[in-house]
Amino acid sequence: MQIQVVKSKIHRVRVTGADLNYIGSITIDEELMKAANIIEGEKVSIVNINNGERLETYVIKGVPGSGEVTLNGPAARKVQKDDIIIIISYGIMDFEEAKKFKPIIIFPDETTNRLR
């Protein structure tokens, strides 16, 4: 049996922008992506702490060190600039492997979105 488990999580980052007139996705500072082991194009879940909204989208690489976390396209309607969100990616793996797997969870500075 295979199950879906948390692979990576960026816990509590500040939304720096919401661009409705874009194709879609979330743009994330490449340094945050690398630290959390998230790749461009990967499907992620977004949980908005401010309003309880949850959505799924895919990741676009942002400028390294910029602190950028921008929701693009329709997702921009679910957040506002300065909202605090959690970004979660999942992996599918064998049940026994999942019991031993440890996700990568990072806790950036909420004000700057920079790694601590």
Automatic annotation (TrEMBL):
One of its GO terms (molecular function) is aspartate 1-decarboxylase activity. Substrate binds at T57, G73, P74, A75. Its main location: cytoplasm. GO terms for biological process: alanine biosynthetic process; pantothenate biosynthetic process. Pfam families: Asp_decarbox (PF02261). Pathway: Cofactor biosynthesis; (R)-pantothenate biosynthesis; beta-alanine from L-aspartate: step 1/1. Its cofactor is pyruvate. It comes from the Bacteria. Keywords: Autocatalytic cleavage, Cytoplasm, Decarboxylase, Lyase, Pantothenate biosynthesis, Pyruvate, Schiff base, Zymogen. Catalyzes the pyruvoyl-dependent decarboxylation of aspartate to produce beta-alanine. This is Aspartate 1-decarboxylase. It comes from Thermaurantimonas aggregans. The lineage of its organism: Bacteria, Pseudomonadati, Bacteroidota, Flavobacteriia, Flavobacteriales.
